[in-house]
Amino acid sequence: MITLCGTTLSNYYNKVKLVLLEKGLPFREERIATGSTDEAVLAASPLGKVPFIRVGTETLCESQVIVDYLEAAHPKAPLLPADPLAAAKVRELAVFMELYLELVARELYAEAFFGGKVSDATKARVRKQLERNLPAFGRLARFAPYVAGAQFTLADASGFATVSVVALAAKSVFGEDLMAAAGIDWKAYVKLLGARASVQRVNAERQRDLDAAAAART
Question: Per the confidence metrics, is the pTM higher than 0.90?
Fold first, then answer.
């Protein structure tokens, strides 16, 4: 049995959870906050990051490593094409979205989502990077109708974790939909993903935990 460790408030936890659901794999969940200094957590994820998984006596951290392992270890309900080059193109998209969109936009999250403040210099730098990277993503992505083509793949698990949060963060901070301005119909893509039962479950359980956290603060 696979144990998924982390919290539904993490988009990358939800990325792994989505893959587990899409592949129909049995798993249990263990709630662990990011940044834990517990030695048992650090033994599995040395920076205290989530998600990580436990498989028997072994552990794996880093969401892309985890989903690549799940794909290799459980080839039924494949989320990668059989052709090696086509599979690499799927991974290319996943890496691009996470490195050049989400990691860049992450610097805006404090202001976009958590009531904090981001410096004007940081905003200017992030905007410049996104205005370069978003059109590049538009050239790489296919949206036919999924991000890598006709089938839902591991790239869509990354898309689920990154596309809407990047678009919403940029819109909140800059007052403009930079993703739409780059010619990316991200709302239609998010709607497409939202029609999947797996995505609906992940979103519902995330909302459940958000509501519980809000209730605990009042």
Answer: yes
Low-confidence ranges of the chain (pLDDT < 50): none
114 and 39 assigned to the same domain: no
Q: Are residues 142 and 194 in the same domain?
A: yes
CA-closest candidate to residue 171, choices 130, 143, 135 = 130
Q: At what angle do helices 186-194 and 197-217 cross, to 10 degrees?
A: 100
If one counts the domains in the chain, the total is: 2
* Backbone phi and psi for residue 149, each to the nearest 5 degrees, phi listed first: 145, -145
133 and 176 in a single domain? The answer is yes
> Last residue of some domain: 73, 96, 118?
73
Mark residue 165 as left, alpha or beta (left: phi above 0; alpha: psi -120 to 50; beta: remaining): alpha
**Type of residue numbered 208:** R
